[in-house]
């Protein structure tokens, strides 16, 4: 049984500053499909006020990962409800494709989507609506969300330290606005990069060559004008 929104908000206020707050806040965002609230916001806020030691980083990673994984379990359950909406012909067609896809490849796809910052609710809802094993999906999603959480926590720590170094101490709203602006800027930069050259560099010379190609591409993307 889930808490009403008002009760959850009150509980979050009581637990503010604890790893349990981060767990519940992440769960609340991840459990709502197509939530417009950026999923990095609870992590960014928690990092700004509660990271003092390396152990705090580890606790933040585990708390956010647990909240995200449990939230996606809720999304999978909601996918069962979507089964009634999906036409039987579409459901059978998707099930036919899934049954003929190697489980290892499908697991890799689920892991990649779950570990990335990209929206992933659509995938879970479709899989659940077609009758795919929720237990198998969660077995892949849980470790993937640890990687997802690690990336977001380390990114939040690095961004917070840069903001504090350049601007100093700011209030929560200013920090959140700057953090969101930085995240949006980096996303736009990533969209403008030449990923084809990065992939080719990886196959030609490994991770180091790919990193150099990515850095060159990012620098070029910063200075060139967008093509129309």
Features:
mainly alpha, 78% helix, globular
Quick structural gist:
The chain is mainly alpha-helical. It has helices at 5-14, 19-30, 41-50, 54-82, 88-99, 103-115, 121-129, 134-166, 172-192, 195-223.
Describe this structure in words.
The chain is mostly helical. The protein has 2 domains: 5-191, no CATH class; 193-228, no CATH class. Helix content is 78%, strand content 0%. Helix 3 (41-50) packs across helix 8 and helix 4 packs across helix 8. The protein is globular, with a radius of gyration of 20 Å. The protein starts with a helix and ends in a 5-residue tail after the last helix. The model has no long low-confidence stretch (mean pLDDT 82).
List the helices and strands and how they pair.
Layout: H1 5-14, H2 19-30, H3 41-50, H4 54-82, H5 88-99, H6 103-115, H7 121-129, H8 134-166, H9 172-192, H10 195-223
Overall outline: globular
Largest beta sheet, briefly?
A: none
Spans where pLDDT lies below 50 across 5 or more residues:
none
The radius of gyration over CA amounts to: 20 Å
The helix-and-strand class reads: mainly alpha
Integer average pLDDT: 82
- Strand percentage, roughly? under 5%
Order of helices and strands: HHHHHHHHHH
Strands, total number: 0
How many domains? The number is 2
Quaternary state of this entry equals single chain
Query: Termini separation (Å)?
Result: 51 Å
**What is the count of helical runs?**
10
Helical content stands at over 70%
């Amino acid at each position: 049984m889930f808490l009403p929104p008002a009760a959850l908000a009150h509980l979050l206020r009581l637990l503010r500053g604890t790893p349990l707050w981060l767990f519940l806040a992440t769960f609340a965002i991840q459990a709502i499909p197509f939530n417009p609230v950026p999923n990095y916001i609870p992590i960014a806020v928690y990092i700004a006020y509660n990271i003092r030691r390396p152990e705090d980083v580890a606790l933040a990673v585990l708390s956010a990962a647990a909240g995200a994984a449990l939230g996606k379990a809720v999304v999978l359950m909601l996918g069962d409800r979507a089964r009634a909406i999906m036409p039987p012909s579409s459901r059978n067609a998707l099930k036919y494709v899934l049954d003929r896809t190697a489980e290892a490849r499908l697991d890799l796809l689920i892991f990649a989507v779950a570990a990335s910052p990209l929206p992933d609710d659509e995938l879970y809802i479709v899989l659940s609506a077609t009758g795919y094993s929720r237990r198998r999906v969660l077995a892949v999603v849980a470790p993937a969300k640890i990687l997802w959480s690690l990336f977001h926590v380390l990114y939040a720590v690095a961004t917070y330290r840069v903001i504090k170094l350049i601007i100093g101490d700011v209030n929560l709203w200013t920090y959140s606005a700057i953090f969101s602006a930085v995240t949006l800027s980096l996303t736009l930069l990533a969209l403008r990069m030449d990923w084809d050259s990065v992939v080719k560099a990886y196959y030609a010379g490994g991770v180091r060559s790919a990193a150099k190609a990515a850095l060159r591409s990012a620098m070029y993307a910063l200075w060139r004008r967008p093509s129309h």
